[in-house]
């Protein structure tokens, strides 16, 4: 191991590899999907029930909960609202 790497952070490494922003985007999508799934468990709401509440299909709910998919902010807000959550965005 070279001394150049001592003390560097994961963020520094990802930036050097050119994947920092994509890694951040993916992490955010995974946390959002996880939090929605947790809220569904806490409230005992199935995917089918959430689809009915959102007036959409079960397939669309699957897409919403899959971090590999891109979903709109509006879709996230509607789902969060049905689960008693709200979406907030901070620009820093």
Word description of this protein:
The chain has 92 residues and is mainly α. It has a single domain, classed as 434 Repressor (Amino-terminal Domain), CATH 1.10.260. The chain is built from 5 helices and no strands. Helix 3 packs across helix 4 (58-64). The two termini are 34 Å apart. The relative contact order is 0.12.
Reported for the largest beta sheet, the result is: none
Categorize the overall geometry.
elongated
CATH superfamily: lambda repressor-like DNA-binding domains
**How far apart are the first and last residues' alpha carbons, in Å?**
34 Å
CATH architecture: Orthogonal Bundle
**What structural class do the secondary elements suggest?**
mainly alpha
- Just give the CATH class: Mainly Alpha
The figure for the number of domains is 1
Radius of gyration equals 17 Å
- How many DSSP helices? 5
Number of DSSP E strands: 0
- What are the low-pLDDT stretches, counting only 5+ consecutive residues below 50? none
Provide the succession of SSEs.
HHHHH
Indicate the mean pLDDT: 90
Features of the shown structure:
92 residues, mainly alpha, 434 Repressor (Amino-terminal Domain), 5 helices
Gist?
By secondary structure, this protein is an all-alpha fold.
């Amino acid at each position: 191991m070279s001394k150049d790497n001592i003390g560097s952070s994961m963020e520094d490494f990802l930036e050097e590899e050119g994947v920092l922003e994509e890694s951040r985007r993916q992490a955010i999508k995974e946390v959002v999907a996880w939090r929605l799934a947790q809220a569904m468990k806490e409230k005992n709401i199935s995917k089918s029930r959430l689809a009915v509440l959102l007036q959409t299909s079960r397939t669309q709910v699957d897409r919403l909960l899959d971090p590999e998919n891109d979903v709109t902010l509006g879709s996230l807000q509607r789902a969060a609202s049905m689960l008693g959550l709200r979406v907030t965005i901070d620009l820093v």
